[in-house]
Specification:
It is a single chain. By secondary structure, this protein is an alpha/beta fold. It has a single domain, classed as Vaccinia Virus protein VP39 (Rossmann fold, 3-Layer(aba) Sandwich), CATH 3.40.50.150. It has nine helices and twelve strands. The strands form two sheets. It has an eight-stranded mixed sheet with strand order 7-6-5-8-9-11-10-12, sandwiched between helices. A four-stranded antiparallel sheet has the order 1-2-3-4, with helices on one face. β3 and β4 form a beta hairpin.
Length: about 280
């Protein structure tokens, strides 16, 4: 199962989890990108994925409509299918070979309504059905080329295109990877805040202080985010995290520019030693 396939300019492989039978990690160009527990798809191992899982749990009860930009190993679509049966999900992924690898070695639940569309995450938005406009209860942006987020899915123009698919009361969750100083993450908060009125950021305190490379989940909505319920959920994780919003989030992003198509750059490259 560890045989690698070529994906873009690099390689992808699915590796068994040495500590949990029935679980596997998708690794792309040496970077662990997704973890799947085939026996229990509600078991979310990566910290940032667990945080998005909590956000999904806070949506109103019942099936949802979800749009995932970036497939990975389809961890969150599996979670939605398991926790909210009857949900309709669309996934956009550039690399068909990656999805074929995942489907072959980590099969999706048969009852799950998960449609995968192939293409660039930004360009494919224009190809989505008209009925999906303003109907997504959840949109997840988790787009990576290797270990970096491409520049063209970080701009205010991109987020305005995404906004057209979010339902009233729907929530956008963005996986933002950054390192010391958090310049990229701060600019993403500023950019998202230029599109949506309710924004928050979630990460562990060490990450929020810019002490290491890691992930910050940026949340946004056209309505009020369920901020009252979030701290308890995030504090209960193995690696507790903090919700930053309001004046604290304004201070976090102070001075960070709004990213446009003309100024956008990809997320920083992590030091490979962090995946050792």
């Amino acid at each position: 199962m560890e045989d690698a396939i070529r994906v873009g300019a690099g390689f992808a492989a699915i590796e068994p989890d040495r500590h949990r039978p029935g679980s596997f990690t998708l690794v792309v160009d040496g970077t662990p990108q997704s973890h799947v527990d085939l026996d229990d798809p509600t078991n979310l191992t990566f910290e940032y994925i667990r945080r998005i899982g909590h956000v999904i749990d806070l949506l109103p009860p019942g099936p949802i409509t979800a749009l995932h930009l970036g497939a990975g190993a389809l961890t969150l679509p599996r979670y939605v299918a398991a926790t909210r049966p009857g949900s309709r999900q669309q996934v956009i992924e550039l690399e068909r070979g990656l999805v074929d690898l995942v489907r072959e070695q980590l099969p999706l639940p048969r009852a799950a309504s998960i449609r995968v569309r192939y293409g660039d995450a930004r360009a494919a938005l224009e190809q989505l059905p008209a009925g999906l406009h303003a109907s997504a209860d959840l949109i997840v942006v988790d787009v990576f080329s290797g270990a970096r987020t491409p520049a063209h899915v970080t701009s205010v123009e991109f987020y305005r295109a995404v906004a057209g698919f979010l339902a009233p009361g729907g929530v956008l969750a963005i996986n933002v990877a950054d390192g010391a100083g958090l310049a990229f993450a701060r600019s993403q908060v500023s950019t998202v805040g230029a599109v949506w009125p309710s924004v928050a950021a979630v990460a562990d305190t060490g990450m929020l202080r810019g002490r290491r490379f890691g992930n910050i989940v940026v949340l946004a909505s056209g309505s009020e985010l369920p901020l009252d319920a979030m701290p308890r959920l995030f504090a209960s994780d193995p690696l507790p995290s903090k919700v930053v919003h309001g004046d604290e989030l304004i201070a976090f992003a102070a001075g960070a520019p709004i990213v446009t198509d003309a100024t956008a750059i990809g997320s920083p490259e992590p030091n490979r030693s962090i995946f050792g």
